[in-house]
Amino acid sequence: MREIDPAQTRRAAAFQLWMSAPMPMVTLFKTLDVTPLVRWSKKYHCKFNMMMCWCIGKAASQVEEFFLLPVGDKLIEYDRLAVNTVVAAKDGEISTCDVPFSPDLAQFERDYLELTAQVRESCQPHDLEDCMVIGTSALVQTELDGAVNIYAGVYNNPFVIWGKVQRRGFQSVLPISFQFHHTQMDGAHAARFLELLQGQIKELSSL
């Protein structure tokens, strides 16, 4: 990770426009067809949440803007991505776990299982300071149509929220919300990410 001059990037205008905005976050909603992901999880006994996190990381890794993040009053460029997940700790509370993204699904699954188990037992978060972290929250206790996250002004990372998988005939669908800082990306970049995410999930059918 390194600080870069915003004026020397494609986000120069966005940096000027949105860094001092009182509410610079944008939220998009999309309903995904997760039928292939549900089938894959059952067939290979993989955690659905782990697979969602991997697909999110795979899609984000193809969008250049995900490697930039406004931090404080600076623009930081990262070489690596990570996906954050919420873990139910053994003390009854929750904690968070940053999992480094790997395009190798088997490697990502090993890291996910090892690190979330570590957080569950230690009741302490696992943070990766050298990665651009994509936050996630799976509220599987209920079906959601969408969610808008809080904005505290100190956490500018992109964030994906979803609830329980819903059935529509023979399809499994999942409404999600995607929140991002307008300095980091525009709506077109976010829309491309969501299309890539849907495409990545569909590709599971051919793997």
3D structure, described in words:
Helix content is 31%, strand content 29%. The chain is an alpha+beta fold and 207 residues long. Strands 2, 5, 6, 7, 8, 9 and 10 form a seven-stranded mixed sheet that branches. It has a three-stranded antiparallel sheet with strand order 1-4-3, with no helix packed on it. The longest helix is centred in the middle third of the chain and has 18 residues, at 105-122.
Helix content: 25-40%
The ordered H/E elements are: EHEHHEEEEHEEEEH
Structural class estimated from helices and strands? alpha+beta
The low-confidence runs, each spanning 5 or more residues with pLDDT under 50, are none
- N- to C-terminal distance: 33 Å
Q: How would a crystallographer describe the biggest sheet? A: 7 strands, mixed
Overall average residue pLDDT? 96
Give me the Rg, rounded.
17 Å
Helix count, DSSP H or I runs of 4 or more residues: 5
- Number of E strands: 10
Proportion of residues in β-strands: 25-35%
Which overall shape is indicated by the principal axes computed on the Cα atoms?
globular
